[in-house]
Each structure stands twice: as C-alpha cells, then as structure tokens.
Amino acid sequence: MRYFTAVLLAIVGCADDDILTSALCNQPCFTQSSTTVGVGLCQYGVPVCDETRTFIECRGEVKPALEICDGLDNNCNGLTDEDFDSDHDGLADCFDEEECDGLDNDGNQLVDEGFDNDQDGFASCKDCDDNNFNIHPQAAEICDGLDNDCNGQIDDGTITEGEVCGLSSVGACELGASVCVVGEDFCPDAVLPENEVCDSLDNDCDGWTDEGLYRPCRSDCGQGVETCAAGDWVTCSAPPVLPELCDGLDNDCDGDVDEGCLCTEGDAQACSSGIIDRDMNPVNCGIGVTFCDAHGQWGPCWSVGTTPEICNNWDDDCDGVVDGYSQPCGSVPNAGIGVCRVGTSTCTAGRWSTCDGIVGPSQEICDHLDNDCDGLIDEDLNPHDKVDIIFAIDWSGSMCPFIQALAQGISAYVQDFIGTDHRFGLVVFPGPGSMTIEVRSAPVTVSQLVTSLSSLSCTGGGLEPSYDVVADLASPLDPYNIGWRSDAHPYVVLITDEPAQTWSSRSEQSVSQVVDPCMIGSCMPGDRLEIFVITYTNYFPQWDDVTPTSMQQSYLIEISPPSASRYTDLLRGVFTNICR
What CATH number does the domain containing 402 carry? Predict the structure, then answer.
C-alpha cells in the first residue's frame, strides 16, 4: 500500500540525522514489524549504506501484502488463501472451476474471465441483467478502485479503513488512521520522523532529544564547534576570551597585548620610594628594587643597599645628609686659560642652583688680561692711535623699531673712548628737505656725539640714498664738510633697513671705485676706506663689492633684532681703542 512506501521513504530520509546509525549496516534489515519475518512469504532484506556507513535502503526484503488466491501466505499471517473457499469444498475458489463470483477460482489471477458478455469492463455476473448489483457480491470491500461488495459504492467501508497506520508514536511522531483514496490506502494524520533540529523535541522519533547536532561557532579568539542540549546551543569549543594578563599575550583577543599593565611579569627596576627591609620596616635612605607581578603591577620596594649621592632630594649614601654638595658647571672648553673659569652649582632639595662664577671667552680689551682665553694678553687691538668715525643713519619712518636701540648702543660704545683723541660724527639721511643730507656733528668728542644721539628720531624722508651718502662721505672733495682730520684714520658706519638706493644714478660698482682706494683722512696709498654696513642680510649682496672682508671680521652686519647691548658689542668689533 502507498502508506507503507511513504513510511519507508521517511525512514531513508532520516539517515542524514543519524536515525539509522551505522549499526544498521551490519545486520539484515526489515522496514516493518519483524514479527512477520519467516511467516509466509515475508523475509529479511540486505542493507545498502554509503561510504560514511549511513543507511540508505533495505534491498530484497519481502513485506506483508494483500492475500491473493495463489496458494501462498501473501499477508504472512500463517494462513493461505483464507476467505477464498466460498463453496466450502475445502479448496480455495481460485483453484475451482471459474465462477462468476468476483473471485479467481482457477488460480490464474484473472477474476471472472469469460463473463463480461457486454464488453463493458465488468463481469456480467455482477452487471445489470436487472440493474441489481448485489448478484454474487465479493465478501468484503477492499481499497482497489472497484465495487468489491457490489453495493454500488466503490471503496466504501474498506477492510483497512480506520486501521492504525504510521511509523511511530515516539517523540514528535504520531500514528494515524488509514484512509482509502482513489484505490490506495493513505495515512494522512500520521506524523513521520524528520531530521533532528535543536528545539528540545525528538524530531526523528528515536527516543532521544537533540542528539548528534553540531554547528560551527566562534569567539573573539577563534573558531570552534558547539552542540545542542535541551533546545539550546551550548559548549562552544572556540578558544575562550580571557581576562588580560601581563604575560606578553593578547589574552582577551582585542588586538592589544598587556593593555593596562604597568610592566611585564618578572621585570625589575630600581626604586627609592617606600623602601622596606626584610622585616617590612621602612628604610629612609639608599636604594631598593621592585619586581613586576602577574597583574602587571610593581610590588614592594625592597632595600638592597646604598649608591653615590645624586641630586634627588634623597639620602642615597645613607650618611644622614640629603644632597647639599657642589660640582663644577658650565661648558668652557678653554677653562683655566686667561680669565676663563668653570662655575659651581650646588644641589639643594633635589635642585641645582644657577652656575655661579662661570667665565667664558670674551672680546679682548685693553685691561692687561687674556679676555679671549687664547693665552695672549691685549693682542691684536686696533693699532690706530687716532680715528674719525662717522655714523650715517637712515632715520626714515621704517627705522622707528631700531632708532632708540641704535642711539643707546652707540652712546654706550663711545664711552670707551672718553679722554682719547678719537672723534665721532653723526649724519642722518634723508634730510628734512628734498634730497638733502644732514650732518649733525663731525668730528666731535664723545660727549658732543652723545648729545646729538639723544635727539635722534625716525622722522626723515622716504627715499634713502644710501649709495650717494657713502660715495659723498668717501669723496676727497668732502661735499658734506665733514672735516676729516689728516692725521686720523677714517671709518664710515652706514645703518639702514632699506635696499641700496641713489639720487644720482650711482651703482654698487661706481661707489666701490670711490672707497677703494681711500683718499680721505690719513689713508696711505693702497688703503681702502673702512666702510661697515648694518642692514638686513638679504641686502648684503648690494654691498659686497663696496665693503672689504677678511678672516678677522665681516663688514656686513645684520640689523635685526634691535638691541642696545647687541649694537654695542657689534661696534666693538668695528673699532677698539689701542691698548696702552
């Protein structure tokens, strides 16, 4: 019957879910009640399994079937051709002479042959001589699409209708009642086995719940497999996420190693805070050692001895004195030569004092000392006994940031020459009128120059003819009436924040030809005028042919930053009084 076929297919379909385990592959098989095996025609089959030892089908088995009139026990109930001896002659009707009775009397499995007189597909013995279908009825209605009991109804009240059918009532499975549909028995109410799923039910009806179910799983630390228990996925075998330890590993699998750890277990370092001895007593001096524990934290500071005293507000050598010592300071490569000396700094409460007493090299001055610490005293001081120095200063509005610092720096510089025969002058440009140069004083004493500098301002015109000023000051015609002394060596110091300019179409080359050779003051044949230019560095190329340079000094000086003391020091490099 069809429902037996459905049952067998359901069993085979459950093989993937381990219902029929590999044990079924090692013994004869039978897909219905084994109690009929060996009775009548029923016999075991041979199991067919795949390479994984999973049961596929039972091949060659003989199962109970409907009893037919053939001299055999087809339904395996121990009886042969029962219900076919309708004439009670002790022999099944199928082996009697064929009669028109709906039975196979002669054993040829053809029912009522030769009795279909009107060729309508029905034996005339059951046909309508007088529209009476109860003539020679079969004993019982069976599910075969025929009116076996000749009551005018096909497959009504079959002998199998309502019989219990299905495979099992274990787990989620349910038995049903047989129903005849179009000549075949069905079991629509039965619930057959299905593949096991993780839902706390026995889906494959083998008496076990959620067995043999696995699926991949993962954690932040990797992949694994988990199993199903009581409807839940549990016991994932993926590496667990652990609390981070200070062991050089990423225990919590977040991509960071030993985060939050101050140190790595086993590390050691010196310490001087909270030192204790082996009896846990505090030690207030010396040095200790601390070790890193498994939690990445530094442990106690254990005393290990003393160290030389250092400036750290701690009694390192345990002599009862904290710091309070001095040491040399300052980097003076030629310390001990001339006036040069290193300084002394004292440590107090963990801090070094300023470097007291340090003396470094300075410009040589006439003081009978080796100021530049080169082993020579008062060497290479300017040999000129008498000089005339003219300061030519741009006093236009753009010079306002520099004017006061220049006035103060020059005033401090000339103080070195009080009481000497040296004279100084001041020229400002452009003058108050159009295209004029103003000579404030030249050559005068130190006090007279200082007076002129006191009124120096930045109120001059807008076009600064620096080339013209230098050329006119160097001219032997002396157009500004400077009055260069014939027994004094001439110096010109030009100060401007503007590029070189001219009112008379002069060029750097033409100005250079005026200053070299020098034709004013006490200049000798072959001398060139001592001309110094204080301006911005980017304007130096406009003066490099006018000013001489040597190994000893540069005649081009950066004007910025404005600082009176800086200007004083720079001018001392221009000319220093001869040492006497």
Answer: 3.40.50.410
